[in-house]
Write a structure and sequence with these properties.
Shape: globular
CATH superfamily: Flavodoxin domain
Distance between the termini: 9 Å
Structural class: alpha/beta
Strand content: 15-25%
CATH architecture: 3-Layer(aba) Sandwich
CATH class: Alpha Beta
Number of strands: 10
Number of helices: 5
Amino acid sequence: MKTGIFYGSTTGVTEDIAKRVGDLLGADVYEASEINKVDEYEFVIFATSTWGMGDLQDSWMDAIETLKTKNLSGKKVGLIGVGDQFGFGDTFVDGIGEIYNVVNEIGGNVVGKTSINGYEFSNSRAVVDDEFVGLVIDENNQSDLTEERINKWVESVK
């Protein structure tokens, strides 16, 4: 299945996670500004960090508007959120929650939901039915769990 990953990264952490997932899936990896290429893929993955008070990473500001014009019907969609559960526990990985809402509006089939167990946060728009809507990584506080979380998630979406 032809897979494309689109990420927004300010500090390089989300880019690193996107590339690691891309290596495991044999996926093409692009910055969010290349979102028009989403049409070329059967499986698309969107990765973002969350900034400020629950905002999308800057690269996604224009990309999300372009994404809203796409039709993802019949496409498998995965989401990757990078955040800081202790510093921003009230908006933890809200960015993928915002992308998730757009993906649902344009017909994407979201796969790869993960358990909220093992995280400490008070609120997140990325939680639906007591699960995260995708892979969640906290490199600031739980970097020792990143590789295991990536590998488990990749196996679940294959």
